[in-house]
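Quick one: structure tokens for this chain, please?
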Amino acid sequence: MILPLSSYSYRTWGIVFALCGVLSFSFRPILIKLSYAASPVSPNTLLFLRMALSLPFFLVIAWWLRNQQPALTRRDWAAVAGLGFLGYYAASFLDFLGLQYVGAGVGRLILFLYPTMVLTLAFLFLKKTPTRREIVSLVMSYAGIALVVSDQIGTSGEGRLVLLGVLLVFASALCYAAYLVASSQVVKRVGSMRFTAYSMAVATVPAFVQFFALEPAGALDLPANVWVYAIILATVSTVLPLFLQAEALRRIGATEFALVGAVSPVSVAVMSALGLGEPFGPRQMAGAALVIGGVLLVSLKKG
């Protein structure tokens, strides 16, 4: 079937938005690793900078959408606050912690598992029995992660730290998966743009409290390159991809977006190997292929 030119252009721009959003978001773990390498900056401080520098954008969008209907009830505000804490603060902080100990490529592969975690949570809490295809997806994905990290985890001190990092990033992905499962109905009622702006703004509160409670007065006395990384992290890898991906989902739907999203862990692995010197040999490539194949198998299921 040949699409009309206007429909073709609409879909093409959707793919462009999806690709740009995925690649922008893919820079996040690399920017975090570069920040850690440039200065002994703590995860608390880096998360604070990311949230503080992105906050004005979300406040402007929240103000712009303030009169959008329907009006939020107390229950809606409670849901937005709770989900913002879980999906944007807790998931981000655990990711920042984990990336102290694992490479950006490995971290992104683990985060990419979240669709399989959504499947598992739906089985545990919504009593949705997985199909054979979904079970194969789970086995492929987690076998891939095991293969990727098999030569890095050991009984040495460094190996135990890698395992800690893997578990922290896994917990981050689990928080994000739980957020997706719990937020679906709220997003339908509130609207995706308004929900994103409000929940991101709310998520800055615990990040601010944590920073001022735990960090010394001179914590923001950082080298100029760390500030540059933080600004790019807050804008190019936080604000921009959230809205690019929202528009892409509206134009091309979740199925095609999942296909484009498969670029993310591959692009991070390649950029990490080239820019950070992280390993990306045959074992990592085979593991990445299993993870991506398993996630796509469940993401692209019919219906």
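The chain has one domain: 14-299.
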